[in-house]
Amino acid sequence: MNDLKMNGKITEILEVQKGTSKDGKEWKKLSFVIDNGEKYNNIICFDLFGDEKVDNFQKYNKVGQDVEVSFNVKSNKWKDKYFTS
What does each C-alpha distance from 27 to 4, 68, 73 come to in angstroms? Predict the structure, then answer.
């Protein structure tokens, strides 16, 4: 699958979340929100997983900055409901 791309301005950076998976591996996640300037569906929240991605994002990005985001869309089914990230 090819990466999708979107341009926008970072409007919010949420707190880093950390945890441990069922198999004992530690994980780190950061969510951030951009406004792409469109009339509808203009606010999009993205998630970053992994130490290196989270650390690099925090090092080089801040609220108010214009960015181009490359992303993949994935849906999972759980208890007859679909969740997309």
Answer: 24, 25, 20
* CA distances to 26, 27, 38 from 8, in Å: 31, 27, 9
CATH number, domain containing residue 51 = 2.40.50
CA distances from residue 14 to 31, 32, 65, 85 in whole angstroms, order as listed: 5, 6, 15, 16
SS3 (DSSP) at 54: helix
Q: Identify the domain containing residue 71 by its residue range.
A: 4-84
Using pLDDT thresholds of 50, 70 and 90, give the confidence band for residue 1: low
CA distances (Å), origin 73, targets 2, 47, 81, 84: 10, 11, 16, 7
The predicted-structure confidence for 44-81, as pLDDT tens digits, reads as follows 999 999 999 999 999 999 999 999 999 988 888 999 99
Instruction: Report the domain count for the chain.
Output: 1
